[in-house]
Amino acid sequence: MTEEPALPRAITLFWGEQQQPRRGPKPGLSVDRIVAAAVEIADKEGLGPLSMARVAERVGVTTMALYRHVRSKDDLLILMMNAVSAGAPVYPDDGRVEWRTALRAWAAANYAGYQRHPWIMQIANAGPPLTPAMLDWMDSGLRALGGTGLSEPVKLLVILNITAYVHGQATFSVKLADVDNTPDGDAFGKNFGRLVDPEKHPALARAVASGVFEAEEEDYEAEFAFGLDRILDGIAALISPGSPGSASHPDGTGRSTPD
């Protein structure tokens, strides 16, 4: 009989399988308090300066005392990500939710979370979605598609594609915002234009000439909404009667079937 794979150590904290520390912890110290302190550091300074020693100092204990509650920095990162990812939209599981409105809100809420805690983007793809918050987000997205008639595999692919878009757009906007906030950020568009050879890159040259790279302020929210709506347009086409993946398609998977 094949044994089930063991859950990562940090994950067991969520599902009640973690043993209590052998030595008595300092009164008032808890995993929640440790995680909250770590999130404060990461929100202000990023993940670079985050260490078990810094967190211990923040909560007023020794580093060894911290390790009695959270055994490694990797475990701490998983706990932090779960803490800041709480609050997935809640949709009824009756198939009557308007899928486009629900998915737009779902994606926007996910994107907003990245904006509040940019450091999540460095660890969001570190492993499978096993924390309670991550499972809540997946379930919420799948519920949004409950009345579409799409097959379960296609629903999951839709959710994964939107998740990848949100993660990529959030990463892109944060990095560009860092560029825009540098002393020479305002000159980026003009300097970029100087590097473009109209003969070698004619299409790019036309874009530069339009002034698109010299906008005084990027509207990242509008850019995010534009891309998301194009993805939702594609999903709408997938859901339309007779299209691959719709309820009326023979196998609901997008594969053609013989007549």
Task: Describe the protein in words.
The structure is a single chain. This protein is mostly helical and 259 residues long. The chain starts with 8 loop residues before the first helix and ends in a 20-residue tail after the last helix. Mean pLDDT is 81; it is low at 17-22 and 243-259. It has helices spanning 9-12, 31-45, 52-59, 63-67, 73-84, 99-116, 132-144, 152-180, 188-195, 202-209, 220-239. α2 crosses α5 (73-84), α6 runs antiparallel to α7 (132-144) and α6 runs parallel beside α8 (152-180). It is built from eleven helices and no strands. This is TetR family transcriptional regulator. It comes from Virgisporangium aliadipatigenens. Residues 28-88 form the HTH tetR-type domain. It holds the Pfam family TetR_N. InterPro entries: Homeodomain-like_sf, HTH-type_TetR-like_transc_reg, HTH_TetR, Repressor_TetR_C, Tet_transcr_reg_TetR-rel_C_sf.
Strand-helix topology:
Blueprint: H1 9-12, H2 31-45, H3 52-59, H4 63-67, H5 73-84, H6 99-116, H7 132-144, H8 152-180, H9 188-195, H10 202-209, H11 220-239
Helix pairs in contact: 2-3, 2-5, 6-7, 6-8, 6-11, 8-11
Profile the largest sheet: none
> What's the gyration radius in Å?
23 Å
Number of helices: 11
- Identify the overall geometry: flat
Distance between the termini: 43 Å
Care to count the β-strands?
0
Q: Class by helix and strand content?
A: mainly alpha
Order of helices and strands: HHHHHHHHHHH
Average pLDDT for all residues: 81
User: Can you tell me the residue ranges where pLDDT is under 50 for at least 5 consecutive residues?
Assistant: 17-22, 243-259
Beta-strand content: under 5%
